[in-house]
């Protein structure tokens, strides 16, 4: 195929992919960027969830659960989240036919701190991000659009391949003097090159949630069995008390900065507490203690660093997707790249409009010139 013909074919492919998936990816990117800002925004909106620990004795998980049940009668407690000595405790509850909910408590007094402001907004943003808030059909649309990201990237690189391909400035420098369609092309192509790596990483990891075959393939390569679906509320045995296990956890892991306490026991009767420390590499790097709920004796202990490499890779997919694997700078880059995603849909659409308009002007000019030549002949 001749280079000029190949370029036209790839341009049409890039354009068709943009028409079919650009707006979807814009919505997914915008909501993904908002989700990247969730933690600091919720912290700003909910100063009451930061509690004063000075001189106060921490209550026990049983007291927290008792307060949560009193606030939400008829719900079953699923887990307790402890986020450190200066933060509210979250008790997660579920009930058949209702969405799971969480009650925030003062871990020292047991007082209910009220609903977390902004949580419903970010829950809606997450539904749009995952499936356009349209259930299984929306999930398939998001998955197909995410797969088309690779088409955008591959065709876009070919279409903008500069003559001086070895020069970084030829790829990364924007011509700020450009006007009209050239200006929009600069935004579309050069900014897209800046964000190439974040978009590749987001697409490659995002497909893990979109398609079972992709998830199963990655799990198989990593040697990780398919995750088991969680039992519905009330189907698993509930520990009579968490206090003995919690006391043992505090002795065994005094360096913990956050923890998630299961309220249901495993098949062997053990109660699991997953936790992180200041040295944890990312927000999905959980160490684990399995304890006897009766006397708090340690059944097993597993550090994240000791897990097989494949399990650590699968656990890292979400931090890679959100940028948190790279710390605060990674979160900022990932959120910024996601928020800029609508730019490519809008700039591509506007360039298409300008291209059509310019083509129409050229046709009219050619027609007028032909008419003039006929009259003067």
Structure commentary:
- The protein is an alpha+beta fold and 377 residues long.
- It has a domain at 47-116 and 228-307.
- 55% of the residues lie in helices and 12% in strands.
- It contains 14 helices and 7 strands.
- It has helices at residues 3-36, 38-45, 61-71, 119-131, 135-159, 168-172, 180-194, 196-210, 212-222, 243-252, 309-315, 317-322, 327-339, 341-376, and strands at residues 76-82, 89-95, 98-105, 256-262, 271-277, 287-291, 298-302.
- It is elongated and about 105 Å long.
- The model has no long low-confidence stretch (mean pLDDT 90).
Number of strand segments: 7
Q: What does the radius of gyration come to? A: 27 Å
How would you state the average pLDDT, rounded? 90
For the sheet with most strands, the description reads: 7 strands, antiparallel
What is the count of DSSP helices, taking H or I runs of 4+ residues? 14
Short description:
Keywords: Membrane, Transmembrane, Transmembrane helix. The chain is of the alpha+beta class and 377 residues long.
What order do the helices and strands come in, and which of them pair?
Elements: H1 3-36, H2 38-45, H3 61-71, E1 76-82, E2 89-95, E3 98-105, H4 119-131, H5 135-159, H6 168-172, H7 180-194, H8 196-210, H9 212-222, H10 243-252, E4 256-262, E5 271-277, E6 287-291, E7 298-302, H11 309-315, H12 317-322, H13 327-339, H14 341-376
Antiparallel strand pairs: 1-2, 1-4, 2-3, 4-5, 5-6, 6-7
List keywords for this structure.
alpha+beta; 7-stranded antiparallel beta sheet; single chain; elongated; 7 strands; 377 residues
């Amino acid at each position: 195929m001749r280079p000029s013909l190949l370029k036209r074919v790839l341009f049409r492919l890039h354009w068709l992919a943009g028409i079919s998936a650009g707006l979807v990816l814009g919505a997914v990117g915008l909501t993904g960027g908002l989700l990247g800002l969730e933690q600091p925004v919720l912290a700003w909106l909910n100063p009451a969830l930061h509690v004063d620990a000075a001189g106060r004795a921490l209550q026990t998980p049983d007291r927290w659960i008792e307060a949560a049940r009193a606030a939400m009668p008829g719900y079953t407690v699923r887990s307790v989240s402890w986020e450190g000595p200066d933060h509210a405790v979250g008790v997660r509850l579920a009930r058949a036919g209702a969405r799971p909910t969480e009650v925030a408590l003062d871990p020292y007094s047991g007082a209910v701190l009220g609903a977390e402001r902004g949580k419903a907004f970010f829950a809606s943003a997450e539904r749009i991000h995952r499936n356009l808030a349209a259930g299984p059909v929306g999930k398939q649309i998001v998955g197909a659009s995410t797969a088309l990201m690779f088409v955008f990237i591959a065709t876009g690189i070919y279409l903008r391949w500069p003559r001086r391909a070895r020069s970084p400035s030829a790829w990364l420098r924007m011509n700020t003097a450009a006007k009209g369609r050239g200006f929009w092309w600069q935004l579309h192509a050069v900014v897209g090159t800046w964000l190439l790596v974040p978009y590749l990483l987001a697409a490659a990891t995002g497909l893990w949630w979109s398609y079972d075959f992709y998830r199963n393939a990655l799990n198989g390569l990593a040697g990780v069995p398919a995750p088991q679906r969680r039992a519905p509320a009330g189907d698993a045995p509930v520990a009579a008390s968490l206090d003995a296990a919690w006391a043992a956890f505090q002795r065994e892991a005094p360096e913990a900065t956050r923890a998630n306490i299961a309220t249901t026991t495993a098949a062997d009767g053990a109660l699991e507490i997953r936790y992180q420390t200041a040295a944890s590499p990312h927000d999905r790097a959980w160490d684990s203690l399995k304890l006897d709920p009766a006397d708090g004796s340690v059944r097993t202990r597993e550090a994240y660093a000791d897990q097989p490499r494949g399990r650590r890779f699968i656990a890292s997919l979400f931090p890679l997707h959100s940028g948190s694997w790279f710390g605060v700078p990674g979160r900022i880059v990932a959120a910024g790249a996601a928020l800029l995603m609508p730019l490519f849909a809008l700039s591509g659409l506007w360039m298409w409009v300008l291209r059509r308009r310019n083509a129409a002007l050229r046709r009219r000019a050619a027609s007028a010139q032909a008419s003039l030549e006929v009259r003067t002949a």
